[in-house]
Amino acid sequence: MTRRYGRRRALAAACLGAALLLLGALRPAFESSAMGTSWFGGKRRSPLQTLYDLDQGPRSALAEVHRQRRELLRHACSRHTRRQHLLRPEDLQHVLVDDARGLLYCYVPKVACTNWKRVLLALSGRGPSDPRAIPAPEAHAPGLLPSLADFSPAEVNRRLRAYLAFLFVREPFERLASAYRNKLQRPWGAAFQRRFGTDIVRRLRPRPSPDALARGHDVRFAEFLAYLLDPRTRRDGPLNEHWERAHALCHPCRLRYDVVGKFETLAEDAAFVLGLAGAPGLRFPEPPPGARAAARDRAERLFRDISPFYQRRLFGLYKMDFLLFNYSVPSYLRLR
Ligand SMILES: *[C@@H]1O[C@H](CO)[C@@H](O)[C@H](O)[C@H]1NC(C)=O
């Protein structure tokens, strides 16, 4: 009883704090008074200050690219979002916190997020200094990197004001194809297949075999898309993070992001963030050569077999990610 009351009070407090939080999110970028003047005991400038300095001086080509992406995101948000509900603590779950460096990273699964978690662990000194030496399960272990949702509203606001916030996004359909392949198609996605594949088979297949019902191992891409578009899926709760829209995980119209990194330019964008973070020597682990082109081809092949009707509806579902992050409609899509 007491515990439940305590929890409710904590929630109420968090909701009150959310109003403040929204103000924090809307503050003009680089309000210098909010950034404080010392970092690491005054020895080093914070990543946010470094970005501010970069934007004041003669801009490098890369800084200019990132300024334009921020601008485009802001503009797209004001054009395409209506009245927004306030941020709730659970909206901040995907934003990871590095207090040592002053970084906020919103992770989007299927966009190099394992490597970003590795890099953040290496940066914070909680893992080996070479990110590649950190095993993937360790990088994903809950609690190793705190989430912004774990802090009180005042603590959240302080970090939102003073830290450099970044996220990495990817062409939405390429990301979706990658999620399908990794979680539902590949033999090592057994846990996901049992959890989601069996559901999809039961719900969408007229005469499922007992084997498919038990294992969920042979879900076709078209079935996966039908599941995503099925109204019952959304009614059951938010989409799984591997296929949930990036904007629904990171709320880029309500939180201010200083750097919008892209999977398509991962190496340059990661180097840019690491430079701001004062770790230009750290090499972001690179995907194997040719991996990106292969992922793009796979997405194109998967979507080619999908009817224009489903293509259109699916584009509708992921449209905000295309608009906010400036992705053009894939050439293979038949929208009319
Ligand atoms: C948006 O995308 C177009 C087409 O790919 C590109 O020319 C333009 O530079 C992009 N704008 C920004 C701000 O990234």
UniProtKB/TrEMBL annotation:
It is found in: Golgi apparatus membrane. Residues 1-25 form the signal peptide. Pfam families: Sulfotransfer_2. Keywords: Carbohydrate metabolism, Glycoprotein, Golgi apparatus, Membrane, Signal, Signal-anchor, Transferase, Transmembrane, Transmembrane helix. The gene is CHST13. Its EC number is 2.8.2.-. GO terms for molecular function: sulfotransferase activity. It is a single-pass type II membrane protein. GO terms for cellular component: Golgi membrane. Belongs to the sulfotransferase 2 family. Coiled coil: none annotated. This is Carbohydrate sulfotransferase.
